[in-house]
């Protein structure tokens, strides 16, 4: 099985920065999709930033120019650098990853979510 664990959330001032991390553990053969999503109270979960096929990135319009997604593939870790935080950014941030893990006798598909890490922005 694969587990995704986020860290780095918390309280920041408006205009400040936070860096989220998502570490994937397990006997991972390959990760094909990775991304960050967020869910504010009483709202649907929305895409924040993802890696697309070929390694390019896609961002929500609301975070373009402020957030940066990156990864350390050797350590199966993904990051979200959030700068110039605004009042629209508070939410629980979730990482998502999909790929293949070693099930012993064969490779098994996985597509998992982390437990979420809350981000609060103080005006």
Distance between the termini: 40 Å
pLDDT < 50 runs, ≥5 residues: none
The helix/strand class is: mainly beta
Helix share, percent = under 10%
Sketch the major β-sheet. Answer: 7 strands, mixed
Averaged pLDDT, please?
94
Query: How many E strands?
Result: 11
* Rg from alpha-carbon coordinates: 15 Å
- Percentage of β-strand residues: over 45%
Structure description:
This protein has no helices and 11 strands. It is 0% helix and 61% strand. The strands form 2 sheets. Strands 2, 4, 5, 6, 9, 10 and 11 form a 7-stranded mixed sheet that branches. It has a 4-stranded antiparallel sheet with strand order 1-3-8-7, with no helix packed on it.
Summarize, please:
The chain is mainly β and 123 residues long. It contains no helices and 11 strands.
Please describe the topology of this protein.
Elements: E1 3-7, E2 10-13, E3 18-25, E4 28-39, E5 46-51, E6 57-59, E7 67-72, E8 77-82, E9 91-102, E10 107-113, E11 117-122
Parallel strand pairs: 2-11
Antiparallel strand pairs: 1-3, 3-8, 4-5, 4-9, 5-6, 7-8, 9-10, 9-11
Please name the defining characteristics of this protein.
4-stranded antiparallel beta sheet, 123 residues, mainly beta, 7-stranded mixed beta sheet
């Amino acid at each position: 099985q694969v587990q995704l664990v986020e860290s780095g959330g918390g309280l920041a001032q408006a205009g400040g920065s936070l860096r989220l991390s998502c570490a994937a553990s397990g006997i991972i053969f390959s990760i094909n999709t990775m991304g960050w999503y967020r869910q504010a109270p009483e709202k649907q979960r929305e895409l924040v930033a993802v890696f697309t096929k070929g390694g390019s990135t896609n961002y929500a319009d609301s975070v373009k120019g402020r957030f940066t997604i990156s990864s350390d593939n050797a350590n199966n870790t993904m990051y979200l650098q959030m700068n110039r935080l605004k009042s629209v950014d508070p939410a629980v941030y979730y990482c998502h990853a999909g790929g293949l893990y070693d099930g012993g006798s064969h490779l098994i598909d996985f597509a998992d979510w982390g437990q979420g890490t809350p981000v609060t922005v103080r005006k």
